Amino acid sequence: MAGGSAAELILFIAAIVIAASVAGTLTSEVDRVSDAISAKSLDVAGEIRADTEIVSDAGASVYNGTTENVTIHVRNTGASDLPVDPGAVDVILDGAYVTDVTVTVVDGGDAWHRGDVVRIEFATGGLTSDTDHRLKLVVRGDEEVFRFRT
Length: 150
Prior knowledge:
Elements: H1 2-49, E1 52-54, E2 63-64, E3 69-76, E4 89-93, E5 96-98, E6 101-105, E7 117-123, E8 132-139, E9 142-149
Antiparallel strand pairs: 1-3, 2-3, 3-7, 4-5, 4-8, 6-7, 8-9
InterPro entries: Flagellin_arc-type
Keywords: Cell projection, Cilium, Flagellum
Protein name: Flagellar protein G
């Protein structure tokens, strides 16, 4: 009789140890998922705050054939200030990534505040006249597409 109680006690202790280890594993995994969701929400919040609009007129000439430069104007319509840094702006022209980009605040300030307009200029190496072109601008995850004709 005493042998049966000891076996039941050992099985009970083993069941408690297994249940505790499963609960500990689940708790740590839930914490990891929670941390990942928090980090992703901060990234998404930053992207939501960054919003831009290309305000250049597609009917006007944004391409200068003499200097072979494209100049567009972009307004910060988001909730946060954006850096006036060429590294913060990705430009893709007709599927090709543009590396040498100049970003200048039109009003001459040193920060791109909400409502401010910046001038983005870059060399193209020459564009064919009477051709449609597609420019994609990415600023902190916000993507804008601008189509123009040379």
